[in-house]
């Protein structure tokens, strides 16, 4: 298959979107590099899907600019933006076969039938769908239907793929398999991927960079490892990482009026630790054990190796954390403090 060679950098400048006076996205500035796999990550209602829809042209910005390559596309119709959208709901035509669904964007463009059939077969083969071309969506599994939706997007050969939580309807096993397929697909296609999710595992394993959003604002943009290692705020620290980072009250672990964050794997149960925790729950997960309790009024989680000695519910234990593993945040702004 011949893939596009045009530049597909996406630039968002001071982008704001309001609905009936409610601000969904506010003053977003984000540069997405050509052929990058950018993840828009955040909880429901944070504005990530609205941002994606403005890139695709399905929503008009209230303020600001959307650029694809060297063209500002605010006034360009969605079908003329060289963007393909993949939705959570698949959005397949139930009365059409797999082949007809995949061919449909080319049929709309009046591509000759032999040419569009060949392109559909090429896209389907790349996603392991060649043997299902005569079936209708109702005869496919959820993972197969999602691959049909991807093939329908691929056949257009867009410069930019916009994907809105495409894996959220799949079970855990299929999500894992389809994640791997999407990573391989991005490596094969000369396209830019912009991918919306609330799932941090998808973000950490798929993205070249992550843009973490909260309440219509960008909290942090960086590689998955940068965001994990140096979260810019308490929000990012607790949203990226599972279980979330523990945020300890000022003065409890070390002197000072700042909050201290420690990831569960960096908290240790020791005889002389400065923190006292009342154990409430011990979860043995096979490969690891999670010990949950309270320090003062704060919920705290400790991640232990499965072969370590574990406390039981009701125990009082002491906790410590090496200084090099601590993250410090301003108690008022909750922004990161670097020393």
From TrEMBL:
A Gene Ontology BP annotation from the UniProt entry: carbohydrate transport
Domain ABC transporter: 10-240
Keywords for the protein's UniProt record, in alphabetical order: ATP-binding, Cell membrane, Membrane, Nucleotide-binding, Translocase, Transport
Family annotation (InterPro entries): AAA+_ATPase, ABC_transporter-like_ATP-bd, ABC_transporter-like_CS, ABC_transpr_MalK-like, ABC_transpr_MalK/UgpC-like, Mo/tungstate-bd_C_term_dom, NA-bd_OB-fold, P-loop_NTPase
Cited Pfam families: ABC_tran, TOBE_2
The protein, known as: Unannotated protein
One Gene Ontology term, aspect cellular component: ATP-binding cassette (ABC) transporter complex, substrate-binding subunit-containing
A GO MF term: ABC-type transporter activity
Residue runs in coiled coils: none
Organism: freshwater metagenome
UniProt xrefs under Gene3D superfamilies: 2.40.50.100, Nucleic acid-binding proteins, P-loop containing nucleotide triphosphate hydrolases
